[in-house]
Specification:
Radius of gyration: 20 Å
Strand order of the largest sheet: 7-8-6-5-9-10-11
Order of helices and strands: EEHEHHEHEHEEEHEHEEH
Number of helices: 8
Length: 239
């Protein structure tokens, strides 16, 4: 990601959603300004790194005052593309897919679920809110109906590459992968992987060592919230 000719590092991009979430909390509590130290405490990032990250988006704050919460929220939201209403397509309506489909918080953050798809004929036409599950083979047509679709893979690992290939062939260039599989995609396709087991293993490490020594904060770089949802491969036609 870049602002003008200045590239924003990937590590900074990964922390911007943390700042955005913290600022939303401040806005709800009627706070109008925030210091880099306070924002650092909220997100688990040291204050110097907060200031450096925000400088990449052209925001420096005011000495003795800090940052204007509403303005900073807008600036970060603009950089993250949250001022748009991105269409999201979820492929794989097993336990995890159903949980994602039923989650009501996406719309408040600039995303709308445009379609739900599954290869299992018994799941097709099942209703989730205003959306009915459609066959996976409808994907190309759905992508053609919308601009800049983001794909979400919530299938078991064995089917994930096949689904990713279908997404790429349909024109999707941004994929969120909830499966345990490591995907192979062209260089111009961005994949973010949410590995729940990996996150739990990291927490297990800190849990195990907490009694021996003070654990280091893990907020810095921990940009994925844990979704403790049973993801049973037998609950999906994908195998």
């Amino acid at each position: 990601m870049s602002r003008g000719n200045r590239r924003i590092p990937d590590a900074t991009v990964a922390r911007l959603p943390l700042y955005h979430r913290g600022l939303l909390e401040l806005l709800r509590s009627k706070r109008t300004t925030v210091s880099s130290e306070a924002l650092a405490d909220m997100t688990g990032v040291n204050a110097a790194k907060v200031r450096k990250d925000l400088s990449y988006i052209g925001t420096y704050g005011t000495r003795g005052v800090g940052y204007d919460v509403e303005n900073l929220l807008h600036q970060i939201g603009r950089e993250l593309g949250l001022t748009q209403n991105w269409p999201v397509v979820i492929v794989g309506i097993g336990n995890l897919g159903r949980a994602l489909a039923s989650y009501g918080g996406f719309s408040a953050r600039g995303f709308r679920i445009a379609a739900l798809l599954d290869a299992d004929p018994t799941k097709v036409d099942q209703q989730f809110g205003d959306l009915a599950v459609r066959p996976t083979l409808d994907l190309a047509g759905i992508v053609a109906e919308h601009d800049s679709v983001i794909g979400v893979i919530s299938t078991p690992g064995g089917a994930a590459q096949e689904v990713a290939d279908l997404m790429v062939a349909s024109g999707i260039t941004s994929i969120l992968n909830f499966s345990p599989a490591v995907l192979s995609v062209p260089d111009d396709v961005t994949v973010r992987r949410v590995d729940l087991a990996l996150e739990l293993q990291i927490l297990s490490f800190h849990q195990q060592h907490r009694g021996n020594a003070a654990a280091e904060p893990i907020g810095d770089g921990d940009h994925a919230s844990l979704l403790l949802v049973e993801h049973n491969e037998s609950d999906s036609v994908y195998s």
